[in-house]
Structures are given as C-alpha cells and as structure tokens.
Amino acid sequence: MPTKPAMEPALPGHMEQGSLKHLLGYHLAQASIPTDHVFKNCIQESFKLNKLEFTILILLQANEELTPKRLSTVLNIAAPNLTLILDRLEKCDLLTRIQSARDRRMQLVRLSEAGQAMAEELTSVSHSMEENIWKHLTPAEKQILLELLRKVAQHRRA
Asked: Is position 139 within any domain?
C-alpha cells in the first residue's frame, strides 16, 4: 500500500486551503483583507466615505462629468441604488446634477467645488496608502498583477 507523503509542518496561522486554492474569488477575497483595512483607516474613517462613494468621486474627477446610467453600468449598481448614493454625495455638497446642454432629457453628474477639492485630497492619499501592501512585490510584479486584474475585470458582463 502506498504511503502518504510526509506533510510539511504548518506555519503558525497556516491552514490548508483544500479546493479553494484554484478559485480566483477566494484569492481576491484574501488579498482584499489588507486593502480593506488600509482603505478603512485612510479613507473611510478620515473622509467618511465608503468604497463606492470614493470610486464615484475619483471617476468624476477623471471624467469631468458622467451620466448616472454610465456610472450605474461601470459600477454594476442598480439605478435606484446609485440614485441614493448620488443623493447622499449631493447632500454633502460633493457633486451636482445638471441637465445636459446637448440633450435636455439627459442628466449629468459632476463634482462640486468641494467635491473637486476632496477628490484631489483623496487622490493624494490613495497614492501612498497601500505602500506597505505593495512593498512585498517588485515594481514588475505590481505591474503584472494590475494588468492581470484589469484583464479579468475587462471580460465581465455588465
């Protein structure tokens, strides 16, 4: 009868992952633990924004103005849920909604002056907040990881 190979001694805190090892979702969830912690400390607690609100502000900063429909599609959020988020950001004077000059039936969302200032501050914080996470990877590994994640996200169904 064949003998089982000797198991390596478990490292402190190590646990066998079983059939989870092959699941991208599992590894993404594990990788999100330190990034969630950093986000909470650097953005959520300091600026009182959740990830979705942060993302909307940065997307508006990068695109000047977007339609709610475009935001809903890109973020994969139901329109009624997005409306609630936009309402909150508007109430905090971080964005405004205006009627499109080209198509008066279309509404556009853009940053307010206060929203622009906050987005600039958020951008500054975001450039350094994950340094401790990235320090375990070389610059080339970081670029490879980001490119692979973009490829996975690019082929989602919106």
From this structure: no
Q: How much is the pTM?
A: 0.83
pLDDT tens readout for residues 83-136: 999 999 999 999 999 987 887 788 999 999 999 999 999 999 999 999 999 999
143 in a domain, yes or no?
Answer: no
Helix axis angle, 113-128 to 51-63, nearest 10°: 110
Rg (CA), the chain: 21
Lowest mean pLDDT among 66-70, 104-108, 137-141: 104-108
Domain that holds residue 51: 29-116
- Determine the length of the chain: 158
Q: Rounded CA gap, 8 and 127, in Å? A: 39
- Whether the CB-CB separation of 60 and 109 falls below 8 Å is answered with yes
Please check whether residue 133 lies inside any domain of the structure. Answer: no
